[in-house]
Amino acid sequence: MELVRDALPFARSRKLEFELARTDLLEPHRCVRAQLIKNCDRSVAELGGVFDRFPRLRLIIGHMGELLPSMPSRASRMLNGLSGLDRQLREYFLENIYITTSGIFDHAPFAAAIQALGTDRILFSVDYPYSSNDDARAFLDGLPISSPDREKISHVNAEQLLKLSERRQAR
User: Fold this and answer.
1) Is 86 a catalytic residue?
2) Which residues of the chain have pLDDT under 70?
3) Annotated catalytic residue: which of 127, 134, 135, 141?
4) Which of 25, 38, 67, 151 is 20 to 30 A (C-alpha) from 119?
5) Does residue 42 contact residue 75 with C-beta atoms inside 8 Å?
6) Which residues of 109-143 are buried (b: 16+ CB within 10 A; e: fewer)?
7) CA–CA separation, 88 vs 81, rounded Å?
8) Does the predicted model carry a pTM greater than 0.85?
9) Cα separation of 39 and 13, whole Å?
10) Quick check: 74 and 116 in contact, CB under 8 A?
11) What stretches of 1-145 adopt beta strand conformation (E)?
């Protein structure tokens, strides 16, 4: 439990300590993962207020959006209306959130991300050294998507979001 508390800034809360203490010691990873997802859901909802004040702000969430795109209805049911947001949680995702593929090279989560966000909000990423560049590239090459969508995910979205072409021209 000390390792989890030290590694995760939000894990210093008593609520997480209580939940970890209640969890079966043989499967502590389940509680930690559930808490990560719950905190990520809640953080996106809390950021909604920030996005209302700064509508051009963009947030990039790694690991296929921490799998949040696979559960948009759950997140909306749990969080809409809780924090006085101006818009539905899904609207913030579609306008302010980008996700990366980092380390999640599986077609099911990718399909959920496409369904939830479309190809304009997904950025290719590897998660090196935890994931292999070869595995990441094989995943990208094997995706059942069109060539234009593959180009968007592999580089076009990042170039536009991070204004990389403008930086190259300025040199």
Assistant:
1) no
2) 1-48, 78-84, 167-168, 171
3) 127
4) 38
5) no
6) bbebbbebbebebbbbbbbeeebeeeebeebbeeb
7) 8
8) no
9) 11
10) no
11) 59-61, 97-100, 122-123
